[in-house]
Write a structure and sequence with these properties.
Blueprint (H helix, E strand, L loop, with lengths): L2 H5 L5 E2 L5 H14 L5 E4 L3 H10 L5 E4 L4 E4 L6 E8 L5 H13 L2 E6 L7 H5 L2 H5 L3 E6 L5 H6 L6 E5 L11 H8 L6 E3 L5 H15 L3
Parallel strand pairs: 1-2, 5-6, 5-7, 7-8, 8-9
Antiparallel strand pairs: 2-4, 3-4
Amino acid sequence: MDRRTRTGVPEVVFGTGKPPEQTLRLLAELRAHDRTGPALATRCPEAVLDAAAEAFPGEVVSVDRTAATVTVGEPPPPAGHALVLTAGTTDLPVARECLATLTALGVGAEVMADVGVAGLHRLLAKLDDVRAADCLVVVAGMDGALPSVVAGLVTAPVVGVPTSVGYGVATGGVAAAMTMLSSCSPGLAVVNIDNGFGAAVHVAKILKVACRG
């Protein structure tokens, strides 16, 4: 229960493989013991998403069905500005998991979807907005090329998130991960496949330290 004090990031419930009632009970325990920020559950099954609002009467409950996240409690005031880019719309579940986590951790964030390298003009048309962000999370499957492109265009930190989107030799996101890890754009950090949560935590830590001054 003291993880927020130790690390700046609270305990978060991973909903996969847990009975719905267990996830809801854990959210209630986290919320009861730590009122300094909302309680968050990721990778929640439909039963948890359906029951969440009724399970926490009187609380602010945010359910994102695309992200499969549940947040219980009012988000803290946002600090900093993170932008979550996706190569395609199929990457949105991971991107929205990242967004929900950033919001719960008190980071101002938004998603810019479908700006992948197959239509590079879409990214270039929004380059001013991309360069205005304090940190960027770039979510991509298939060949995983978008984070390298973005990292070569901006001064802000960039975190790449490979997704398990793609055919055949994409091998469930391994090809995208290998591309990102082999990037020739210096300064690109990479998290595990489909790990929007981990990318959000990394960005939140960067921005919290940056905002101290």
